[in-house]
Design goal:
This protein is mainly beta. The protein has two helices and 27 strands.
Length: 298
């Protein structure tokens, strides 16, 4: 079992990054902890610059090479000059408010979609995409189509929160759950393909997206509240007979959603829990047996 040793130290490292219009400047690391085998850096601090490349490893004053795995809370908060950041594939966690109030951050360069999906963001402001104008870049290309790699088991909370460049997402069968606010406020997201294997969609996962149609796959069971809230372009919805639970306001304010198709029977529909205001009241819901009656909670 690893013993965590707290270290408070200031290191001026040999790794450099480039600042537009300025000379190369050393990265500064402060207030971090290391494991007993001296490999993992927990905290990271960087000075304010327009372009920043976070290295996967750096050499400390003690001559040991450290691996950057986490970015500390508030690490880049209020870095108003920061315009571009490159994250190594070694990053697995970003602390709370790490990118709060970075109004000019436009470009987030990543090693791979798989590496990005493995990052735990402690809250929405831990994600550099939360600044509303930031986009993901892979191999110097802006990502508008996201194909989640096979083998990813869940899309983590806040994974693509606020990313305005994403237009289409494909989710493989290995993903069982899309977690809280994973695609919240992705206002260019029009198309999502969900595979059999997905069971649940978390709170606010697709709220304020531009989805035009939605097919919940066979075997899907539940949505948490606000899952598709205010998806105003959504016009068609298919629900499998495996559905068990709709959270409150799941499809509320989906103003063009008029027709919902349910694949099960009337008797099965009666067993589905439907939270308060789960869809707009003017929807017509049909099943193979015909139109389903409206109940008070519908």
């Amino acid at each position: 079992m690893k013993k965590i040793i707290a270290v408070v130290i200031l290191l001026l490292c040999s790794v450099v990054f480039f600042t537009a219009g300025a000379e190369n400047t050393d990265i500064t690391y402060t207030d971090f902890t290391v494991t007993e085998n001296n490999r993992d850096i927990i905290g990271f601090k960087g000075t304010e610059n327009e372009e920043l490349i976070i290295p996967e490893t750096f050499k400390g004053e003690d001559g040991v090479w450290y691996r950057v795995t986490e970015i500390d809370l508030f690490a880049f908060a209020s870095c108003s000059e920061l315009r571009s950041i490159t994250l190594p594939g070694s990053i697995t966690r970003v602390g709370e408010y790490a990118f709060l109030n970075c109004p000019n951050l436009r470009r987030v360069n990543i090693e791979s979609v798989s590496a990005w999906c493995n990052i735990d963001f402690d809250n929405q402001y831990a994600n550099p995409l939360s600044n509303r104008f930031s986009s993901l870049y892979l191999s110097n290309e802006k990502l508008t189509v996201i194909d989640i790699p096979e083998g990813i088991k869940e899309i983590k909370p806040y994974a693509f929160f606020g990313c305005r460049s994403i237009e289409s997402v494909s989710v493989p069968s290995s993903v069982a759950k899309i977690r809280e606010s994973a695609f919240f406020d992705c206002r260019s997201l029009k198309t999502i393909t969900l595979s059999k294997g997905l069971k649940s969609i978390g709170r606010g996962s697709f709220a304020y997206c531009a989805l035009e149609s939605l097919v919940l796959p066979d075997g899907f069971t539940d949505t948490e509240w606000l899952a598709f809230y205010n998806c105003r372009a959504l016009s068609s919805l298919e629900i499998p007979d495996s559905m068990e639970f709709f959270g409150d306001l799941t499809f509320h304010w989906c103003v063009y959603l008029a027709d919902i198709q349910y694949k099960g029977t009337r008797a099965q529909w009666d067993e589905v829990y439907r939270g308060w205001g789960w869809h707009r009241s003017l929807c017509t819901i049909t099943c193979p047996e015909g139109e389903l009656p409206k109940y008070k909670d519908d």
